[in-house]
Design goal:
By secondary structure, the protein is an alpha/beta fold. It has 7 helices and 9 strands.
Length: about 250
């Protein structure tokens, strides 16, 4: 068992470099990128199917709850750098996913460029000035039938078996636009012949906050329900491949 020590839940163990915003735009706006985004997305789903089955030992529970839904928001616990990119594409297929990601995620060699060209990401803005237009892009994606993927824990902690606190502000988008929320909870189980654990993914939802509440209270309601659901599945973890230990103060 590996051990990682953390001083706060905002600890970033990935330590990827930021990808320059201009470079993201060039990748996305290139002519080959526009022509091939649908093809690349399908290729990413196919790769994801092979990867999920052979390397992650994926078992999905409750995937049928997504049927009949087009635009939606999906919230997941962030516990695997590569799995959290491809597994949602597989589970949501044939619906298309757009993931809200930091520019650090896009710096992953080959993978970052692929998901940008496949039009599968919504990179977080640099500052407050771009926040309004970014929020509109997120809302437009959900309203147009995309499933918007958000990891409210923000930082990936590989194989983490507990749910970290996350802010209700992450749920502002569905609180405002009214699209349903689904919850993806990844848990880890011991496998024969493999050192690394297999992934069991629980799908729950749809969640819709009571409309009589204010937007702020709807976001809080969605946040609390999501955390409650995620924590209810935490007991399904049967292998702690990496143990996260708080540093002594």
């Amino acid at each position: 068992m590996k051990i990682r020590y953390y001083s706060s839940f905002n600890e970033d163990f990935a330590l990827q470099r930021d990808l320059d915003p201009e470079k993201i735009s060039k990748i996305r706006d290139s002519t080959p990128g526009r022509v091939s985004s649908a093809v690349l997305y399908r290729a990413a789903v196919l790769f994801g199917r092979v990867y999920a089955r052979l390397f992650r030992g994926l078992k999905a529970v409750g995937g049928e709850k997504l049927r009949g839904t087009s635009g939606a928001f999906i919230y997941g616990n962030h516990t695997h750098a590569l799995g959290d990119v491809f597994i949602p594409l597989v589970i949501n297929s044939p619906a298309r996913v757009k993931a809200v990601v930091s520019r650090q995620n896009l710096a992953i060699p080959l993978i970052g460029k692929l998901i940008v060209k496949a039009d599968a990401v919504l990179p977080l803005p640099d500052g407050v000035k771009e926040l309004k237009s970014f929020s509109q892009m997120v809302t437009d994606a959900a309203k147009s039938g995309r499933r918007v993927l958000i990891y409210p824990e923000a930082h990936v902690w590989d194989y983490c078996t507990f749910i970290r606190p996350f802010p209700e502000t992450s749920f502002t988008y569905p609180a405002l636009c009214g699209e349903p929320v689904f919850v993806f909870t990844s848990t880890y189980r011991k496998r024969r012949l493999f050192r690394t654990p297999g992934t069991t993914l629980f799908v729950d939802g749809p969640l819709r906050a009571p409309q009589e509440l204010s937007a702020k209270k709807r976001a809080l309601w969605l946040s609390e329900k999501t955390a409650e659901i995620m924590r209810s599945h935490a007991d399904a973890n049967t292998q702690e491949y990496i143990k996260y230990v708080p540093e002594e103060k």
